[in-house]
């Protein structure tokens, strides 16, 4: 429902919030395509038709761009339509991530599959998802992507109990969803990237509602942990939670900085803001008003 970033998400999905010139969901799809995934299922809900429209063909827009001779932009728009084989299914009620994944069971069938959360953007020199897929091929175990977070923020995430660690790879003995800091088994948090087997569906069908009165994937993965074993890979790169107001602001600025044509303009602008704000702080500390300066 995007409640953390209201009122921006009152009438549009948080996944469609623009970051520079692309909606957040497009970054997620591009990450999956970069990792070699060709078929994608997007689990949506009511009032999220804009996601389907974005990846669909827009005949009128293409005709207008072609008529105006904007061929470079036209190719970009057409590229969105052919990015991957994208399918959709609606989660009729917001019953949690576990329930959303359960909705995908008919699409997945008997194959292992990746889960990417639509409000978690990962930016890295290498593909984090591809690394997870390679690890799965080696060990044939279900995998979660993780990063360390400050202890005071563990109540926002699923947190793993590491059994052992070798470089960036953890063996996981347990998980807990959104624990209080004093109860957290570690500060290593799941970051919205998973490689799962179809056996997770059986676990999802047996769990009860957990944190937030929702069906939590973390609770199902606890069963997987006991029955099959579970691994975690520490993800390289930056992660942006665009469902959080500050996370969204960081994503907008830092992804803008990655654009060659925008970087110098943005740097100059940010430097000017910092100079201006520091000057204000100085005047306030010295108890000097702007009106005094004008005298």
Topology:
Blueprint: E1 18-19, E2 22-23, H1 24-34, E3 39-44, H2 49-55, H3 59-67, H4 71-81, E4 85-90, H5 97-102, H6 105-108, E5 113-116, E6 120-123, H7 128-139, E7 142-148, E8 158-166, E9 169-177, E10 188-196, H8 199-206, H9 217-227, E11 230-234, E12 238-241, H10 245-257, H11 263-285, H12 290-294
Parallel strand pairs: 3-4, 7-11
Antiparallel strand pairs: 1-2, 5-10, 6-12, 7-10, 8-9, 9-11
Helix pairs in contact: 8-9
Which residue ranges are poorly predicted, with pLDDT under 50 across at least 5 consecutive positions? none
| Helix coverage percent | 40-55%
Described by strand count, sense and barrel closure, the largest sheet is: 6 strands, mixed
Strand order of the largest sheet: 5-10-7-11-9-8
Using only CA atoms, what is the Rg?
A: 22 Å
| N-to-C order of helices and strands | EEHEHHHEHHEEHEEEEHHEEHHH
Number of strands: 12
Based on helices, strands and strand pairing, what is the structural class? alpha+beta
- Work out the strand percent: 15-25%
Report the mean per-residue pLDDT as an integer: 87
Structure, described:
The longest helix has 23 residues, at 263-285. This protein has a six-stranded mixed sheet with strand order 5-10-7-11-9-8, covered by helices on one side. The protein has helices at 24-34, 49-55, 59-67, 71-81, 97-102, 105-108, 128-139, 199-206, 217-227, 245-257, 263-285, 290-294; strands spanning 18-19, 22-23, 39-44, 85-90, 113-116, 120-123, 142-148, 158-166, 169-177, 188-196, 230-234, 238-241. It is globular, with a radius of gyration of 22 Å. It is α+β, with helices and mostly antiparallel strands and 295 residues long. The N and C termini lie far apart (53 Å). The model has no long low-confidence stretch (mean pLDDT 87). 41% of the residues lie in helices and 23% in strands. The relative contact order is 0.14.
